[in-house]
Write a structure and sequence with these properties.
Elements (H helix, E strand, L loop, with lengths): L8 E3 L16 E10 L9 E9 L3 E5 L6 H8 L7 E6 L3 E4 L11 H6 L3 H4 L7 H14 L14 H14 L4 E4 L8 H16 L3 E5 L3 H7 L2 E5 L5 E5 H4 L2 H8 L3 E8 L2 E8 L31
Parallel strand pairs: 4-8, 4-9, 6-7, 7-8
Antiparallel strand pairs: 1-10, 2-3, 2-5, 9-10, 11-12
Helix pairs in contact: 4-5
The structure holds adenosine-5'-triphosphate.
Length: 303
């Protein structure tokens, strides 16, 4: 089979040109072209001219500092926000799992997961045995079968996160869009969720997820999108993109990347120097202090 190799996409960068995205034979299910967004005409652009592709069976990680627009990008991909520029093409049913776990619902967990079947049922059909079985299978896959009879509102934040992931799995979407799916989870459940996402990808599902864990991206994502400002985004093969120098520049913190040889292959781990954090806040976007990030800022007018 012939494999298309996508063009490398680099919108400037902290240290180097973006490496090419990894080649893949899967069919593209999500195509983003020239995407730009800002929350109002007088607001700064969060990102501009983004272009990337996600294929069936691929997990794309989106990384970047706080407030750089990762959630906003996911909301664009999920159709919750309308792009201000450019286009998004989604060729398969998708399901969005938000970062917020606000629990106002008094539904049982099994009913929450069953809601994932709504797209298949349409407006007027009640769930049948097959739908209940799909919901049960999704809960089992995510490891929350024992929570089925519990009230969703009475769960911990991490448990609710797993329920929402199970609901997305039950929906049989072919593209999962997940906002920090491991953020509220303990180490065991982080590993579990990454494992489940890997299994789903093996079955041909495409996954787009944001994460603050470079290790998670290195573990499971062929390609990564680094988002750190209007003029600074890179899309490329994860192991080539997430180097010590790039991560250190993006997060403004000395970060080492180590390769560990394990029986199942090379594992990459990132080690931040927690004493190396500058005293200035890293949260405020695009102020004068942020210039340290943009050592290789591209002149957008020249493109
Ligand atoms: N509805 C909104 N109206 C105006 N500005 C918004 C709105 N939602 C988010 N923002 C702003 O857009 C910027 C990007 O927010 P977003 O939540 O997309 O960032 P993020 O990269 O996901 O952040 P984090 O890593 O902290 O979750 C922030 O400065 C935020 O305050």
């Amino acid at each position: 089979m012939d494999c298309d190799v996508d063009e490398a996409q680099s919108l400037g960068g902290p240290t180097q040109a973006a490496p090419s995205p990894a080649a893949d034979c899967g069919t593209p299910v999500l195509r983003v072209d020239g995407l730009g967004f800002r929350y109002g005409a007088r607001m700064p652009w969060l990102f501009r001219d983004l272009a990337f592709t996600v294929r069936e069976g691929e997990i794309l990680s989106i990384l970047g500092p706080n407030a750089r627009g990762k959630t906003t990008l996911l909301k664009n991909l999920a159709g919750i926000l309308k792009p201000v520029a450019g286009s998004i093409t989604v060729d398969v049913p998708s399901s969005y799992v938000p970062q917020d776990h606000g629990a106002t619902s008094s539904y049982l967990v099994e009913d929450m997961v069953l809601m994932g079947r709504t797209r298949m049922l349409g407006a007027f059909r009640s769930p049948g045995d097959a739908d209940r079985e799909a919901a049960r299978a999704a809960m089992k896959r995510v490891g929350i079968a024992r929570l089925a009879g519990r009230s969703y509102a009475a769960l911990s934040g991490g448990q609710r996160q797993l329920v929402l992931i199970a609901r997305a799995v039950a929906s049989e979407a072919r593209l999962l869009i997940l906002d920090e799916p491991a953020s509220a989870l303990d180490l065991h459940n982080q590993a579990r969720v990454l494992h489940v996402l890997g299994e789903l990808a093996d079955l041909g599902m495409a996954v787009v997820m944001t994460t603050h864990h470079p290790d998670h991206a290195l573990h499971c994502s062929r390609n990564t999108l680094l988002l750190f400002g209007e003029h600074d985004a890179q899309w490329g093969a994860t192991t080539s993109l997430l180097t010590a120098s790039t991560l250190s520049a993006v997060y403004r913190l000395p970060i080492d990347v180590h390769a560990l040889s394990t029986p199942s292959g090379t594992r990459w781990i990132t080690v931040p120097d927690l004493d190396g954090a500058p005293l200035v806040s890293h949260i405020a976007p695009r102020n004068e202090d942020d210039q340290v990030l943009t050592t290789n800022t591209t002149d957008r007018e020249g493109r």
